[in-house]
Amino acid sequence: MFEGVLLQDQALxxxxxQVADIISGTVFVFLGLTACGIAAMRRRSGGRxxxxxxxxxxxxxxxxxxxxxxxxxxxxxxxxxxxxxLDTVNSYFILVVASLAFLDLTIGKMxxxxxxxxxxxxxxxxxxxxxxxxxxSKYKLIPYNYLLVTCLLLVLTTVVAVPRLARKFLLIPDRxxxxxxxxxxxxxxxxxxxxxxxxxxxxxxxxxxxFAVLLSSFGYVALQMVFASERRxxxxxxxxxxxxxxxTSILPSGSPETKNLRITAAxxxxxxxxxxxxxxxxxxxxxVGVLIADVSGHGVPAALIAAxxxxxxxxxxxxxxxxxxVLRGLNRILSGQPRDQFVTAAYLWLDTExxxxxxxxxxxxxxxxxxxxxxxxxxxxxLVFGVTSAPEYPVCEMHINAGDRFLLYTDGVIxxxxxxxxxxxxxxxxxxxxxxxxxxxxxxxxQLLSAIRQWQPASTVQQDDITIIVIDVV
Length: 474
Known about the structure:
By secondary structure, this protein is α+β, with helices and mostly antiparallel strands. The protein contains twelve helices and eleven strands.
């Protein structure tokens, strides 16, 4: 009876001694998991720093929490068996996780320094785990780990505390808050890491309080960076939406009213703004020019050059009847574009009164013509724009008949790949045209777009801008 009471008193005494560690460990694990959850929801806006901060907090809290529960005998047997291994991994690799959290705050030489600390920390950690597995010694390399922690804390605290160094090496918007957290945690950690090798024991609660101060200041800075990143993203998205509206406004609002022609155009950009462009140059009810162009690359740079083409077209309207001069004129105007941005183009002049068509291109996919049950590839190509100041653009002259169908397109039509990596290609494009030769031009365009979508895996996003122009002679 007496022994039972004594054991119960000892258990209660042990529990009272472990309460602080259990509470602090639980809080840090909970905060860590919360931070990781927030990071998962905000992946687009700087959530990585929150993820590393969360893992750091969870690892810091897990160690005293598991130790306390093990002492009280509250853990399953299999967890207690692997606990020494978990403790060893935690002891060595918490430095690496902490360094990864700080990495996103730094630039320049400071970033390279932290990357070096991560590499050295990984090497020490792997070596320490290896010693434990083969010799049973958990802390064989831990003095080197403490030395690395001390060096990192000294450097980080100095950089954060000195305004000139902080402006040079840190990306944080509010240095003061982090400086306070770093100084408090740094003093506690330096004391602990210097005391342990000398055989002095420090209260666990002291370390928990120091880490709580650092965690709060770091979390404040991390959230500031996340919110600033979100504001930038919202601003960029708003600007892209405006750019899309502007680009849409420079494209033709409809097909020109030309006698004996039925024209259908489809324009599907890969992103908010695109490098594809097309334009109609109607001269009178019987004559019209059709231009299609494709700027290399995607996004805003390509869209800006596409807008330049819109302006350039106005200067070549007087020679709209001559494809050679149209392309030469566009080449002259675009010759100042960046050298890594190439532009291909094709121009088709149609004169329904005289039943005559002229065609020329600058490095563009061929014009396709359906006539009397036969599909022809018409290539009359010169150099892409911007290569030379005086290129030659050969012109192909054709007689046009009722029932003829012309198709102009950009390479986004033939380049999409299926799951095996096979491109949609010219053969499938031509097959869709043959299979739908009796359909109106609008239905042919729909069928072609549908075939391209079916060719690509459902999970694959569009890989290039797509523009198609179908012209029927009626």
